[in-house]
Amino acid sequence: MTALKLENVNKSFGEVHVLKDINLTVEEGEFVVFVGPSGCGKSTLLRVIAGLEDATSGTVTIGGEVVNAVPPARRGIAMVFQSYALYPHLTVKDNMGLGLKQEGQPKSVIEERVARASKMLDLDSYLARRPAELSGGQRQRVAIGRAIVRDPKLFLFDEPLSNLDAALRMNTRVEIAALHRTLSASMIYVTHDQIEAMTLADKIVVLRDGRIEQVGSPMELYNHPANRFVAGFLGSPSMNFLERSVEGLPKGQTLGIRPEHLTLDGKGQIGGEVTHVERLGGDTNLLVRTEQGETLTVRLFGQNTTPVGEKVRLRFDESHAFHFDADNKRL
Amino acid sequence: MNKARRNWGTTIAAHGVLIAYTIIALFPVFVILINSFKSRKAIFREPLALPDADSFSLIGYQTVLKQGDFFLYFQNSMIVTVVSLTLILLFGAMAAFALAEYRFKGNTLMGLYLALGIMIPIRIGTVAILEMMVSTGLVNTLTALILVYTAQGLPLAIFILSEFMKGVSDDLKNAGRIDGLSEYKIFFRLVLPLVRPAMATVAVFNMIPIWNDLWFPLILAPAEEVKTLTLGSQVFIGQFVTDWNAVLSALSMAILPVLILYVIFSRQLIRGITSGAVK
Question: How far apart are CA B61 and CA B51, in angstroms?
Answer without folding.
Answer: 15
